Structures are given as structure tokens and as C-alpha cells.
Amino acid sequence: MEEMNVVFVLGHTPAIITETLAAITATAQTGVRGIYVVTTFSGVNTLNRHLFIDGVWASFVQAYPQFACCRFSAENIRGCAGADIRNEQENRDMAESIFSVVRELTDEDMPPLMASIAGGRKTMGYYMGFAMSLFGREGDSMTHVLVPEAWEKNRDFMYPGPEEASAIDLVNIPFIRLRRHLKPSIGKASIEALMQSAQTAIDIAAMEPIVLHIRPRRVSFLGRNVEFPDREFTFLQFFAEQKTRHCRYPEKITCGDCTGCFLSYDGIDARKEDLMRIRQQFSPVDSGHFVRFEKAWESRRAAADNLQEPLSRIRTAINRVFGGDPRAGWLKVGNVGKRGDARYGMMADKTQLRIEKD
């Protein structure tokens, strides 16, 4: 029979452990290898006294002998955060303890993990759920245990007999798994770094790719295609390359609110050679189309004189295909800054953009 580990967040209620284990015998075709508990400092004393000194665990094992070989002792009950979770530091200590235990129990060499969020303060259950989203593997699960009202009101009730175990509802709690989207090195990072990494993973996953197909001069996004004339596609590719090739902060995984790659008129003029290189993809250098394009960019304020019309045509073509869909804004070239000192750039995130020759 396959075995799993079970981890709990608890306050002072040991019955959650025995009730959950009793429910496992009635609902799961699996054994339990080890039991682990994260609790407060005061919870350690309370749980140890009830479970091991007062004999609740020994009594439970007599009723459920399948747990006789289960790894569970006072050493498996980990306390932290002082007497209780009553200030910011204690709350942080508890979060770090939960993350640490879940990280350890979800190592690739460990058996499947069942995490219970039935006990402890609400923040403890939240952190357990978040830790499972960060570290949980396929096959790991999260549960809550529900017992009949009469048992819940009886403070002396610790567990039902095997014949009554089916009266317990072991509710499976679904959760989003981010493990494979995080860098392996992030495992031992701070809580802030873990949260930022998780948010970045979500942001990237939510971004639909924008593909610029060079030869047909077509942009594909959200299952729709927008085709552009040579000149307009040249500007789109120019600003897309500005995002993908000339990012000023490559250490940033996503752009977020960053507009560091946006260019002023002078900045665009300084990259005139990039514009000419891209424009040559569609017309030979001795063709009338290319010569006229090149000549337009020979003036001292070429960008100021020649940028606005193609950008307007780009917006019109996009609006024609996407209508009022606000997501179409990612395709457009926008500007930031005050009038007369604006900087221009593609609104898409750099992680969205793909430039292909087909």
C-alpha cells in the first residue's frame, strides 16, 4: 500500500489529528508514514500533554492499529512564534515555520503529502495553503476535516471508533500548483522573494503571446491576426526589438510598470540604423519604397516629423480587428511623459513578444 505524510497546522486541538487520521482509514486507500505538526510555542506543550502524556495517541493506536508504525512523537510537533500569534513578528515566524516544514516534506524524495488546514488560527491555514501552492507536487493534497456537531461540542471527544469513522467528512481543498513555474533556487529564499517569484509566475502565465510574423507582416494575438503595410510593420518590429533586445533592466523578469526602454524622438533618431535594417526586409535598398523611407529620415528631427502618422495607422488597423477589446492595447505603441518630452514604446510586456521570420 502506498504511504503518505500528513502535516497539520494546529493550536490546542489534538482531536483534529485523530479525526483526520480516522477519516483517512475510511476514505483513502493509502497508509500514513509520518505525522508532522506546526503549532505555537504554547501549542507544543498542550499537544504533547494530551497526545503523549495523557495517552490519547496510545489509545488511538489501540483503536487503529494501522498507525502503530507511523512516525509520530513529540519531536514531530514544531512550535514557534512565542506563546501565540499576536504581533507581526510572531506572524512572520509562523509563516516561515510552515513554509520550512512544507518545503522539507515536498522534497522530490519524500512520499505524497496531505496538508490539513483544519486547525490553528486563520492565518496559519492561509500560510499552509500558500505553501502548498508554492511547493506542492502532483499527488500532494490539502484537506479540511468536518465532524458531526455533537462530537464538535464535546470537548472531551478525541476520535470515533473505527465503525463510526465514515461519519467524518475529509474535504479535499483544491489549490493551484506553482512549483514547476518557480526557479529551483527559490526554494530557500525569503518569504518576500517567494511571493514575488510566485506573482511573476502568475503574471507571465496570464500574458498571451504576441507574435510578429516578419514575412507576411502580420501580428497574431488572442487568436486574431492584424496585417500591416511595410512601413507600419517596420515601426512595430522596431519597438518590439527595443523591448526584447535593448531592455535597460534585463534582471527584471517582467516589465511591470517599467518604461526604461521607451525612446524620445532623439532616442529614435539615434537608432535610425535599426529602422533602416528592418525596412530592408521588405524592399531592396535601391527600390523606390526604401529610398523614400530613407530620405524621410534624413532630416534633423526625423522622428518628430515622421512617427505620428504610422502610429495612428497602426492604432486604426488594430482597432479594426479588435474593436473595443482593452487587451488590444498591448499591441499598440504608446507614450509616457509630458507633451513635448514624450517617450515612445510598445505597451506589451517583453515576455509576451515573439518575432518570427515566417
Describe the protein.
The mean pLDDT is 91. The chain has helices at 15-27, 41-53, 56-63, 88-105, 122-135, 149-153, 191-206, 230-245, 265-270, 272-279, 288-296, 302-306, 308-322, and strands at 3-9, 31-40, 77-80, 113-116, 141-146, 169-172, 210-213, 218-221, 224-227, 333-336, 343-346, 353-356. Helices cover 41% and strands 16% of the residues. The radius of gyration is 30 Å and the shape is elongated. With 358 residues, the protein is of the alpha/beta class. The chain folds into two domains: 3-175, Hypothetical protein VC1899 like domain (Restriction endonuclease-like) (Rossmann fold), CATH 3.40.50.10770; 209-356, no CATH class. Strands 3-2-1-4-5-6 form a six-stranded mixed beta sheet, sandwiched between helices.
Short overview:
The protein is of the alpha/beta class. It has helices spanning 15-27, 41-53, 56-63, 88-105, 122-135, 149-153, 191-206, 230-245, 265-270, 272-279, 288-296, 302-306, 308-322, and strands at 3-9, 31-40, 77-80, 113-116, 141-146, 169-172, 210-213, 218-221, 224-227, 333-336, 343-346, 353-356. Helix 8 crosses helix 10 (272-279) and helix 8 (230-245) packs across helix 13.
